[in-house]
Amino acid sequence: QVQLVESGGGLVQTGGSLRLSCAASGGTISNYPMAWFRQTPGKERDIVAAIASSGSPQYIVDSVKERFTISRDNARNTLFLQMSGLKPEDTAVYYCAARRDFGLGLSSIQYKYWGQGTQVTVSS
Predict the structure, then answer these.
(1) pLDDT tens digits, residue range 5-31?
(2) Which of 11, 16, 48, 83 could be cross-linked to 36 through a Cys-Cys bond (beta carbons 3.0 to 4.6 Å apart)?
(3) Residue 114 DSSP SS3
(4) Rounded to 5 degrees, what angle do the CA atoms 37, 1, 30 make?
């Protein structure tokens, strides 16, 4: 059973940067497409970025393109999300997820394994 643990969230000012990490244990993630989602109170969990098991292809939602980068280090069993140019609307709980099926998934229902989430708060 794969377990995912996010870290790196926190409070940052507008324009700042954060790097989220997602460490996997209990199994290798090297064969799993993975993704970052985010969720605000009362809203659905939305895709931010996804990455294939090999690192390519990738998907980045339009609202964060040019500001966020998704990457992975399969040797370290870790997924990353580098966030820069942060805006107050990026404030959310960020979750990493892994799916067992081939191909990028853009919906939360396509993912089997989830982390507990890490809070990102961007102050104006």
Answers:
(1) 999 999 999 999 999 999 999 988 999
(2) 48
(3) strand
(4) 65
